[in-house]
From TrEMBL:
Pathway: Amino-acid biosynthesis; L-histidine biosynthesis; L-histidine from 5-phospho-alpha-D-ribose 1-diphosphate: step 4/9; Amino-acid biosynthesis; L-tryptophan biosynthesis; L-tryptophan from chorismate: step 3/5. SUPFAM superfamilies: Ribulose-phoshate binding barrel. HAMAP family: HisA (MF_01014). This is Phosphoribosyl isomerase A. Belongs to the HisA/HisF family. CDD domains: HisA (cd04732). NCBIfam families: hisA-trpF. One of its GO terms (biological process) is L-tryptophan biosynthetic process. Involved in both the histidine and tryptophan biosynthetic pathways.
Length: 241
């Protein structure tokens, strides 16, 4: 088995590390300090951190200074998401020293800008394809944003380096990943895919790792780690191989 990258998630709302269910505002469970959570994943051996400013994604403010502090404290790679939608927010995100950013809403609402920043920044830009069924969702997953496969075709043409694919129906539910969706997206692109949403067990990680030959490069793990369904050390042992 080829190694699957694991990206433990730290989602920040109102200065706290939280997990949501289906990405719905108001369903937060709080897990304390984002910096402590991120440092704990780093100590446990993570090579990546998936860091999300949920307030910026929802349009309820931002946690920009905190997110920059967390990113600056990491010795590991950081994928930064949430509210990166224009030149100013992109510059602020890249200035944190993160390894790459993940654009969601912008890819749906300002495609010309996204094509421009893909051309300028290459693999520092990933696009988050957050879907219900095959309909993309933006603005904190509250608004429809078009068809997954039409958008994917456009982004492929524009040279997008990587996709982070989230099944919203699975996110935060511990119900297992949508493997069919991941297979379908891999069939529609030759770019690496990061899987997000639903991981509940080490067997789920084994199943995602089975898709590495198809193009799945990594998996974001959130709720399962916070709920202690398994440890990050156990997860890393399962996927490295
Ligand atoms: O990660 C979540 O739980 C989440 C929930 C609701 C909205 C967004 C969420 N996360 C990530 O935020 C970015 C999108 O932000 P934007 O649309 O670019 O402002 C994307 O990576 C989502 O996966």
């Amino acid at each position: 088995m080829t190694t699957l990258e694991l990206l433990p998630a730290v989602d920040v709302r109102n200065g706290q590390a939280v997990r949501l269910v289906h990405g719905e505002s108001g369903t937060e469970t709080s897990y304390g300090s984002p910096l402590e959570a991120a440092l704990a994943w780093q100590r446990a051996g993570a090579e990546w951190l998936h860091l999300v400013d949920l307030d910026a994604a929802f349009g309820t403010g931002d946690n920009r200074a905190l997110v920059a502090e967390v990113t600056g404290a990491m010795d590991i790679k950081v994928e930064l998401s949430g509210g990166i939608r224009d030149d100013a927010s992109l510059a602020a995100a890249l200035a944190t020293g993160c390894t790459r950013v993940n654009l969601g809403t912008a890819a749906l609402e300002t495609p010309e800008w996204v094509a421009k920043v893909i051309a300028e920044h290459g693999d520092k830009i990933a696009v988050g394809l957050d879907v219900r069924g095959t309909t993309l969702r933006g603005r904190g997953w509250t608004r429809d944003g078009g068809d997954l496969y039409e958008t994917l075709e456009r982004l492929n043409r524009e040279g997008c380096a990587r996709y982070v694919v989230t099944d919203i129906a699975k996110d935060g539910t511990l119900q297992g990943p949508n493997l069919d969706l991941l297979r379908d997206v891999c069939a529609a692109t030759d770019r690496p895919v990061v899987a997000s949403g639903g991981v509940s067990s080490l067997d789920d990680l084994r199943a995602i790792a089975g898709l590495v030959p198809l193009g799945v490069e990594g998996a974001i793990v959130g709720k399962a780690l916070y709920a202690k369904a398994f440890t990050l050390e156990e997860a890393l042992a399962v996927v490295s191989g």
